[in-house]
């Protein structure tokens, strides 16, 4: 449980850092950049601690990386730019309901009545936040059409990330895999799928945001490195630890506590949650308590 809550905190802080990053990178390009950086950090350690893994588990982890990281994170970044950190993370809190249904159907992991009530509360929090307006801070788009698109993209990211988490848990049941190895394999698969975007990456990294004047690139790299270390390296390793030790729906519910943490950090994002935002956060927290009890 501690690993899942720590992962949620890492993702909350990292999401705020990614949204504050001045860059003209598209969402898939930004995803490729953070995956390559995370691989550069994790691969040497993974090679030193290498242990043989059964081929079926590797195959499932590769598919998990394509769905959960390549597709899911790209869609997540696109939603983050349109909805802001708090709203995007609260949409992601719908993962427990989706994962619980899939886990019950595919892995015979049926949640208890109390856990089902908790999942319903978290899902209610998602519905509340979907009705809220996004913050008008830097990087947010105020148009109603963009807001609707952000919600659709955020829900698509939710489906992909839930599928990736479920596949990762299934792989951990096929063969013993360390969390670091699982995270590295998933990141490698995601980076490989996004690799065709690599030729345009150096040019885009040096470009200013939205056609503004040039910005010193040195100011951006500390944000990129900090967000990668927190969200991609530490966050995914902690996620794999939670998935290995907990039931799927329980792990994903604890990982979905990020919206509650995001309420505390919302002022830094130029966001004022308001009454409905606070109610959504409380519902999500109560849902997590019921599931984790």
Q: What does this 3D model show about the protein?
A:
By secondary structure, this protein is mainly alpha-helical. It has one domain. It contains 13 helices and no strands. The protein has helices spanning 2-20, 27-48, 55-83, 85-92, 95-106, 113-130, 144-174, 179-194, 201-205, 221-245, 248-255, 258-265, 274-292. Mean pLDDT is 76; it is low at 137-142 and 207-216.
| Overall tally of domains | 1
Low-confidence stretches: 137-142, 207-216
Average pLDDT across residues?
Answer: 76
The rough form would be described as globular
C-alpha-based Rg, rounded: 18 Å
For the secondary structure, the number of strands is 0
What is the string of helix and strand elements?
Answer: HHHHHHHHHHHHH
Structural class: mainly alpha
Percent of residues in helices comes to over 70%
Q: Count the helices. How many?
A: 13
Which strand-content bin applies to the residues?
A: under 5%
| Biggest pleated sheet | none
Short description:
With 293 residues, the protein is an all-alpha fold. It has helices at 2-20, 27-48, 55-83, 85-92, 95-106, 113-130, 144-174, 179-194, 201-205, 221-245, 248-255, 258-265, 274-292.
Layout of SSEs?
Layout: H1 2-20, H2 27-48, H3 55-83, H4 85-92, H5 95-106, H6 113-130, H7 144-174, H8 179-194, H9 201-205, H10 221-245, H11 248-255, H12 258-265, H13 274-292
Features of the shown structure:
single chain, 293 residues
